[in-house]
Backbone:
């Protein structure tokens, strides 16, 4: 492994940006039904804790998804965001995620000067990159910062992935994210992938980000490994809230970063007041079924169903996934 | 960081030994009160799963600790072990831990040919190394394999630690363990420490081990980082059971190792049948108070008390530890 650390454990890295994805990845747990009170408190906390970006949810199309079956953060309308942040006269920037094929971006993403949103995050698989690039260029033209989150790369061969990243890097996108959708990667693999992402990022002047999942209790470890090597955009969620095994814990990440602008106290207070109740109602986080799908590089959906069904026959489940991928 | 990986993610490393410390570190959760049925099933599982060593508990002195206030695995008498393992005609080796100053080793550790135990693990702080060496030499003379677990090294300066390790390495000990007692280390620090441990191990022909705690959800990440660099003895516990935030999960570790002798199915079955019940009764594992003591390099006792008291005022707790270490 050739790449050296960018700074030490004591370094303040001015390029680092923390993005709180609690509403978006956490919304996959509760179908985006968050109390307004919760969302407002999360926003206020993020501002006070020095978090750089807050992702509000998906900007999904109401033509595709039934508004009655999802909370409002599936759609993250500008007006709903504005009801929380007003004119957002803070240092915290606002992001929403737009899935390839699920967002009517031409209609639903207004020019930036008419919207409270600062950043459009385009989520794509490798095989839908051309559509992703169309969305990126649209958002850039409208004045937004943009990221592209290339999902499920643990299923893609290295050469195909590098080729895809090279194409992406020639678009107007600002940040290219390594996404460990299945929580399948070990830090050694994150290192190897970061070598590729950072090489391409350096070549084309793009920033690199990391979005990790906690199937193997490696979300935080993988995030700080990527950070050490040069990743700048770091996704995390409060109490790791997110689909299945969840994400990198924001409390771990803020306690790790040395920049004095990050502040743990507002985050601790938010957890006391809002998250404990939510944790009693909803289910996410590291557990054996997610470990097994992560180890076997499988989509967590089977583990989510297993958990929802209240099953505990882990040995049978393990055999079942082995059969599925065999 | 100079040290290269010893093998790749696909390598079977013949030097690797997995040690199940569930009874010993887990015993710190329930005062060593495990049902006989549980202990027997754990032994049978470890044999079937290909685990290399099973630690039965402490060999504490009954002169110091009241037998009525602890379960039998605080003392791990040879007869109690024999009642579980018989003559132990298996590939699994048996270990017990002996704390410096808390074991009457001259009286309570019999010659190996009169005992079912294969390995004595001596637990010490850096400032009690001379006593540890006395115990190691006694155990070696009696015919045992020996390890030394140097605790709380996150509180020791690098030069003092290296000096201590050099002294230890000149004893008859077989394995020297890096122990992250407070769950304070990041993988980068494990890397730096492993450089020192492995350098001294190479020089004196000693094997190196790792015993990690999960305060920052880094026990598994730190274990595989140490492994990658050359550590051979890897401690883990079923479901991470252990004091406070617990340990490296045995299920994560076995799923990671590539040696076909390790088998996940018996472990999954054991968890289904025995651990779920125990998890409902006892409390351990990653939680915010342990994260905070880990980040602040403090003993977990304050977090254990905070948790036991049912407190949830994390922000106040954080301030309190900051005051304590200030």
Residues:
């Amino acid at each position: 492994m050739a790449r050296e650390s960018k700074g030490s454990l004591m370094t303040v890295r001015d390029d680092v940006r923390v993005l709180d994805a609690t509403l978006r990845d956490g919304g996959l747990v509760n179908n985006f039904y968050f109390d307004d009170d919760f969302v407002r408190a999360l926003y206020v906390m993020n501002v006070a804790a020095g978090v750089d970006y807050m992702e509000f949810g998906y900007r999904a199309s109401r033509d595709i998804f039934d508004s009655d079956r999802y909370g409002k953060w599936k759609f993250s309308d500008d007006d709903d965001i504005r009801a929380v942040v007003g004119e957002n006269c803070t240092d915290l920037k606002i992001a929403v995620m737009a899935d390839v094929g699920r967002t009517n971006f031409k209609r639903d993403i207004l020019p930036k000067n008419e919207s409270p949103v600062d950043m459009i995050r385009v989520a794509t698989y490798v095989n839908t990159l051309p559509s992703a690039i169309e969305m990126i260029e649209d958002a850039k033209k409208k004045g937004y910062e943009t990221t592209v989150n290339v999902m499920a790369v643990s299923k893609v061969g290295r050469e195909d992935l590098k080729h895809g990243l090279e194409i992406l890097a020639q678009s107007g996108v600002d940040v290219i994210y390594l996404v460990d959708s299945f929580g399948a990667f070990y830090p050694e693999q994150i290192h190897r992938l970061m070598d590729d992402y950072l090489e391409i990022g350096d070549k084309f002047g793009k920033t690199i980000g990391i979005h990790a999942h906690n199937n193997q209790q490696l979300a935080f470890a993988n995030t700080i490994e990527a950070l050490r090597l040069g990743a700048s955009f770091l996704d995390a969620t409060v109490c790791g809230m997110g689909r299945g095994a969840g994400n990198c814990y924001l409390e771990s990440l803020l306690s790790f970063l040395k920049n004095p602008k990050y502040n743990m106290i507002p985050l601790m207070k938010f957890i006391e007041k809002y998250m404990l109740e939510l944790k009693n109602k909803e289910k996410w986080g590291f557990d054996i079924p997610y470990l097994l799908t992560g180890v076997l590089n499988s989509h967590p959906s089977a583990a989510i169903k297993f958990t929802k069904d209240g099953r505990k026959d882990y040995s049978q489940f393990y055999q079942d996934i082995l059969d599925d991928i065999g």
In short: Chain A has a mean pLDDT of 96. Chain A touches chain B through 41 residues (CB under 8 Å).
